[in-house]
Input
Amino acid sequence: MHATNIKIIGAQHAKICNIYKNTRLKLLKTNTAIWFKKMCKIKHQKPNYIQFRTRGKKPQDKKTTSNMIKFRINQEIKFLYCKKQSLNTQLYQIHLECANQCNKVWQHIQDYIDGRLNEKMDTLYQKLNKKLDGLSKQHQATHHNNKNMNTTPRLINLTNITFTREHTHILTMGPNYALEKDPKRYANELIIDTENAIRQLEPKIQNTFSHMASRKIKQILTTNMYRPMHKRHQHNIKQIKNMLQRNNLTIARADKNKAIVVISKDALEQKIMTFIQENQIACLNKDPTECFQKEIQQALQKCDTLIEKSKHKYLMNIKPTAPHLNAYIKTHKQNRPI
Output
């Protein structure tokens, strides 16, 4: 049998769908341009399209230069926001027309178009992040993290690898720092989790909580501001992970403070072996936790007169396990043991 092409929509429908796709693409590119210019403004970077010179090198001349850069970027952002408003209006009208012409098929077409456009936007954001890296290399000098400071640093680098200023800023935030995500990325998971939680309630109050949850989710999607810095943070974290894997490095916590330590995996394993040898820790063939658990249970059963049966559950752990070895590096001591 020969392969045949099945037409789901006609030529007229395909035309209006292409118009929607092109308008949506223009809107997304406008959003990326706004994000890039905001990042340049936050990072105090001068884009390559801004070309002007000042004669002097005094502080007032530098201040004039920075003010001129800010003014030009602000004008560009205002223009892009006007363009975005116009594209939103066009996209709204085209969206209604597509829904009327394509009927039930439109939802599948829209999902397909949005998926393809999101892939293009991911590659575009990667290009813009590389462009920001190039601008930062021109205007900012990289520095080594082993500096003599009066206060305890939040990042202690025990390797010969140097990090940029942005990478250092991300690492000093600590391992508990949570990156913000775009609400549209986790909206479906949030709706499913909320629906599953509501189904566990009594049937009489499910409708009430469903209405309250829908209002709250709409409020999150409309009012939650997605700050542009987090896209840059995600890009920097990917670069840090690649750098750690490429150089066989790892990150550990410091003892007595909240700093994190960048150290090679071989050096950390050597410190762990030294700790085991100095403390005369022996390796066991079998985990004795279950045996200890049974002995505790037998001891409690024999002590009915001393301890009531109703209090046994407070003295027993359910399915206890042996603890893992968490290596905290003592940066305040010589040779930095764990």
Confidence is low (pLDDT under 50) at residues 1-6, 141-150. The chain is about 60% helix and 5% strand.
